[in-house]
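Now for our specimen.

. . .
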Amino acid sequence: MKKLLISSVAALAVAAPICLVAATPAEATTLYYSSCAKLTVNYHHGVAKSRTAALRQVRQGYGMPSYGTLAQKVYWKNHARLDRDNDGTACER
């Protein structure tokens, strides 16, 4: 009985972090944003089209925007409306 309890707890301890990581939030799959206010809820410092563009924003005194694969998809979906200064970063702050 004690071994069964210990193995159950151990299995739960191993499976719990996997369940938390495997769950994808709805905002992670959103690509289209109608405004910078909505985009910065999920990407606090905006999204960049590349790492170079993100680092350029940091040098200019802004926070580090997201530039991973998903962030780049978000950038390319919204850049015409939300990257008003055409610097490679949408909704920087």
